[in-house]
Protein: Homoserine kinase
Amino acid sequence: MSVTAYAPASTGNVSLGFDILGLALKPIDGSLLGDRVTVVQEQESFSLTNAGRFAHKLPTDATQNIVYDCFLGFKDALADLGIDVRPVEMVLEKNLPIGSGLGSSASSIVAALAALNGFYGNPLNQEQLLRLMGKLEGQISGSIHYDNVAPCYLGGLQLMVESDEQISLSLPVFDDWYWVICYSGASVSTAAARDILPKEYDRATTINFGRQLAVFVDALHRKDKVLAAQMMQDVIAEPYRKSLLQNFDAGRAFAQEQGALAFGISGSGPTVFAAVESLDAAEEIKQWLVDNYIQNEDGFAHVCQVDGQGTQVSEDV
Structure:
């Protein structure tokens, strides 16, 4: 029996929730915007095959791949439960570009651990698995944070709690909003994107950040689209990170002309997003970004909606 897990792309921050909000996304055309990992079988030594559009960006040494680290982390977690895990054959279908701001590392980690857990009969519950996912994500970014792994695994819009009892809360979403995302083809590491940010923020900025987040969450629960959209302004990262993104201000101006509710940086960038109510406007914004924001053959754009399902696991007997 082999087990395959698909983990969707996600956008961290969603402009107003730095390290606190994350949203899972799916293209409306049905294409896969996320990584897939298959655990094929047990064998004498670990092996990993890379496939997918961005497989050529991955290290050729399997032990340098985050999927191998996931195997080791899962093996250790099950050893604590008295369960022996033998080496396995795995396949990573890498559909998300590295350093894109779409939760690429989170997608690989979530898919790998979900597939391993399914292959061994789900010995870890949802909370245990999510905490292990966050730990592995921390190895990539330098610190444990869940704003990509939580929506990638659980789906929807997640608000990070990170208490001893619970990692995140699922928030209401507007199902009729479209989310245009565009990856330029450039690569921005999470660590580099964090280095450009100030080490400290003034009181006015932190008050504004807290106010926006609180009002946004309240507006979601009251289904107030106008107020929710008004709060989607990034006072923490965008003023500094947008200098790294070519044509960002022009993209925002065009999106606003088409009636976009919000325009911002997805995660650490360079992917940008626009939230739109009209599908026609979403397609117009997508085309402008294709023509003016994409820099090379690696770039792409999609019109998406919220992926409410999150990670999907299937078995092939």
In short: The mean pLDDT is 95. Residues 182 and 301 are 4 Å apart (CA to CA). The two ends are 4 Å apart (CA to CA). The first strand starts at residue 2 and ends at 8.
